[in-house]
Design brief:
There is one protein chain. The protein is of the alpha+beta class. The chain folds into 2 domains: 2-206, no CATH class; 209-281, Alpha-Beta Plaits. The chain has 11 helices and 4 strands; from the N terminus they run αααααααααβαββαβ. Strands 2-3-1-4 form a 4-stranded antiparallel sheet. β2 (236-241) and β3 form a beta hairpin. α4 packs antiparallel against α5. The longest helix has 23 residues, at 9-31. The chain starts with a helix and ends in a 13-residue tail after the last strand.
Length: 294
């Protein structure tokens, strides 16, 4: 079921929209009621909204106008990312960004915080936001903002992951919050964003490199062809000998993203149901290894 969900474009888009909803709920129910600030571009938009309320005296009611600011701010980012990330991802990003902005502006902010303990709210919001954004990215989509910039950097092979890039940007954002507001606002916002970024990097499977070793007695030609043609990855294989049986076998070595591993395992079990597979996560890959954003 997971295999079909991740590789059916409509199911992936639906799952991405669910991730958007989770992320928006985390913001609207736990972050904004306690006057904290989200990270990234949304946090910047929230800061602009607060400054407009404070210094211009504009009252936006129980709805957060930061969602509209967020969508408008994404327009130049998406135009820049169009060539690098491709038409399909940008179109999916537009859909998710529209959904994010619409839901964020539509869901009213509770007048009384659901959780009035700051640390508990930071933990809950960080986990939910990281999971939601991680689902969006794993489904090959993006809700815009710094995620798009992070994806561009990741695809170019930069040492910045999506979460790390967000942490760097947020250091400057929260420095401004520290200067403008009471220290507690900036401190708890940082704690929230730390949890969200850590969970996001764990959820973002395209950002995790894995090494797979496949041991098969037959089917090595079909497996190599599938890896090269369907996954777009290089593969090396050699002949081996089973120490217990003394029989001949073939060993295939391939490096790919964690997002692709389930598709590989599905193909291996289809071609050779007796194949033996080992997978090692978080391998460091140097040289000609393409970062893929599906």
């Amino acid at each position: 079921m997971l295999y079909n969900s991740l590789h059916n474009r409509w199911l992936r888009l639906l799952a991405a929209l669910v991730g958007v909803l989770i992320s928006v709920l985390a913001q609207s129910l736990f972050v904004v009621p306690l006057k904290m600030y989200a990270g990234g571009l949304m946090g910047f938009c929230q800061l602009v909204r607060t400054l407009m309320q404070t210094y211009l005296g504009i009252d936006f009611g129980s709805y957060d106008i930061a969602g509209i600011f967020y969508f408008l701010s994404n327009i130049p980012i998406l135009l820049i990312a169009y060539k690098m990330l491709g038409r399909n991802l940008v179109l999916r990003t537009i859909i998710c960004t529209l959904a994010y902005s619409f839901l964020y502006s539509l869901i009213p902010i509770p007048e009384v915080p659901i959780v009035d303990d700051y640390l508990t709210a930071c933990l809950l919001a960080g986990i939910l936001s990281g999971v939601g954004n991680g689902i969006v990215l794993t489904c090959g989509c993006s809700s815009g903002g710094l995620d798009v910039v992070g994806l561009c950097l990741s695809k170019r092979g930069s040492s910045f992951t999506v979460g790390r890039f967000s942490l760097t940007f947020n250091a400057f954002l929260y420095a401004a919050c520290l200067f403008l507001f009471v220290p507690e606002v900036a401190i708890y916002s940082i704690i929230y964003n730390f949890f969200a970024s850590m969970v996001l990097d764990r959820m973002h499977q395209q950002n995790v490199n894995v090494q797979a070793l496949i041991f098969t007695k037959d089917g090595e030609g079909k497996l190599a062809q599938f890896i090269m043609e369907k996954l777009g990855r290089g593969v090396t294989y050699w002949d081996g000998t089973g120490a217990y049986t003394g029989g001949n076998l073939h060993v295939l070595l391939v490096c790919l993203s964690k997002y692709e591993i389930e598709e590989l395992m599905h193909a291996v079990h289809t071609i050779d149901e007796h194949a033996f597979i080992t997978v090692q996560e978080h391998v460091r890959v140097f040289g000609n290894f393409r970062k893929k954003i599906e």
